[in-house]
Automatic annotation (TrEMBL):
<dbReference type="InterPro" id="IPR019594">
    <property type="entry name" value="Glu/Gly-bd"/>
</dbReference>
<keyword id="KW-1071">Ligand-gated ion channel</keyword>
<dbReference type="Pfam" id="PF01094">
    <property type="entry name" value="ANF_receptor"/>
</dbReference>
<dbReference type="Pfam" id="PF10613">
    <property type="entry name" value="Lig_chan-Glu_bd"/>
</dbReference>
<dbReference type="InterPro" id="IPR028082">
    <property type="entry name" value="Peripla_BP_I"/>
</dbReference>
<dbReference type="GO" id="GO:0016020">
    <property type="term" value="C:membrane"/>
</dbReference>
<keyword id="KW-0406">Ion transport</keyword>
<protein>
    <recommendedName>
        <fullName>Ionotropic glutamate receptor L-glutamate and glycine-binding domain-containing protein</fullName>
    </recommendedName>
</protein>
<keyword id="KW-1133">Transmembrane helix</keyword>
<keyword id="KW-0407">Ion channel</keyword>
<keyword id="KW-0472">Membrane</keyword>
<feature type="domain" description="Ionotropic glutamate receptor L-glutamate and glycine-binding">
    <location>
        <begin position="256"/>
        <end position="322"/>
    </location>
</feature>
<keyword id="KW-0675">Receptor</keyword>
<keyword id="KW-0812">Transmembrane</keyword>
<keyword id="KW-0325">Glycoprotein</keyword>
<dbReference type="InterPro" id="IPR001828">
    <property type="entry name" value="ANF_lig-bd_rcpt"/>
</dbReference>
<dbReference type="InterPro" id="IPR015683">
    <property type="entry name" value="Ionotropic_Glu_rcpt"/>
</dbReference>
Length: 363
């Protein structure tokens, strides 16, 4: 999340948010004031951050009639039935329902001569808390704007929104979202009620930025993720050669530390459960990778260096810490010492299959 203040250079803000160095996702939610709308959206177009991006804006910007609103933007706004006239009609009914509860209230409540209440006054109305609580406990069933009821904070529980897509410069409804709709789960008497949200969205109607009909992935595709692994049957197998089966094998290299045959790298085809898992991750998370076998053939220990006696990680963990790899995929045991410097996924089974990434330290 990035906050900005009045006077911020919005072009620089958008450029910074979408820079390659920090770009992890391509779905952006903008909450801005009307006064910043033109400059903010113009910056998005000028920086050509449209294709493969999803831009979602708040209601004030959506209904601002700004000429900078570009095709493909998404947003939500209250349903068209929530007009001022309809809200006043429902509010009148709510007031009637509320004050009908005070019919048998002490006579002083009705005889108190207060024509106008000053909401800015520090002096509270003696019946204010009672009236407020009565409003919270009141409801309107089947109002023009839907059912009306409130939570403890006085916010309306059930709301209906339209999902809007900017198409050819116009606000086009592509779906609806209803919050906290109550459903009865018994057939005879409605004794058990469950609250739920209801989303209706026709993705085929949506036009995405740059006029595309294909939904963006919503994630940044890294050009290449360097993955290190180790031969450990039955999880990872490796056979010499480079004629790998594209369906079940992945080309992987091994750095020859001895270099006795004059070849710096040896060529292998890697396969097994871990490789199949890596291929599925690549497909589902939209990244490409290069795979190599750990040079020293070790998992990773925190040992003293023979030369300067400083303790360092070796093996796959050493490569990860020293930025020689972005990720480890191997049957690596989780330990407190390792967890200090690397982040483990939840183990597949009995600490068996684990994907590791370097731990980011924030200062």
């Amino acid at each position: 999340m990035e906050e900005y203040i009045s006077g911020t250079n919005l072009t620089s803000l958008i450029s910074n948010l979408t820079s390659e160095a920090r770009l992890l996702a391509r779905v952006y939610i903008i909450h801005a004031g009307i006064e910043d709308t033109d400059e903010l959206l113009t910056a998005v177009v000028r920086l050509q951050q449209l294709e493969n991006f999803v831009w979602i804006i708040n209601e004030r910007v959506l209904v601002s009639n700004s000429s900078a609103l570009f095709d493909g933007i998404l947003g939500v706004k209250l349903h068209s039935s929530f007009t001022e006239e309809n809200l006043l009609i429902d509010a009148t009914q709510l007031i009637m329902n509320t004050f009908s509860k005070f019919i048998h209230h002490p006579p002083l409540f009705w005889s108190e001569k207060i024509s106008v209440l000053n909401c800015s006054s520090m002096q509270s109305w003696s019946y204010g808390r009672d009236v407020f609580q009565a409003f919270l406990n009141s409801s309107v069933e089947g109002g023009i704007t839907g059912n009306i009821s409130f939570n403890e904070g006085g916010d309306r529980i059930e709301s209906l929104y339209e999902i809007i897509n900017i198409q050819h410069g116009q606000l086009t409804v592509v779906g609806t979202y209803r919050s906290n709709t109550s459903i009865c789960t018994t057939s005879s008497m409605c004794r058990e009620v469950i609250d739920r949200t209801e989303l209706k969205l026709d993705e085929n109607q949506i036009i995405w930025p740059n006029g595309l009909n294909r939904k963006p992935d919503g994630v940044h595709t890294r050009r290449n993720v360097s993955v290190v692994t180790i031969v450990e049957k039955p999880f990872i197998f490796a056979r010499p050669g480079n004629n790998c089966d594209p369906l079940s094998e992945v080309y992987c290299t091994h750095k020859n530390l001895n270099n006795s045959n004059g070849e710096e790298y040896e060529q292998y085809c890697c396969y097994g459960y871990c490789i199949a898992l890596l291929q599925e991750l690549s497909k589902n998370l939209s990244f490409v990778f290069t795979l190599h076998l750990v040079a020293d053939g070790k998992y990773g220990s925190f040992e003293k260096d023979r030369i300067d006696q400083q303790k360092r990680w070796d093996g796959m963990i050493g490569e990860l810490i020293n930025y020689q790899a972005d990720m480890i995929i191997a049957p690596l045991t989780m330990s407190p010492e390792r967890a200090d410097d690397i982040e483990f996924t939840k183990p597949y089974k009995y600490h068996g299959i684990t994907v590791l990434v370097r731990k980011h330290h924030f200062h």
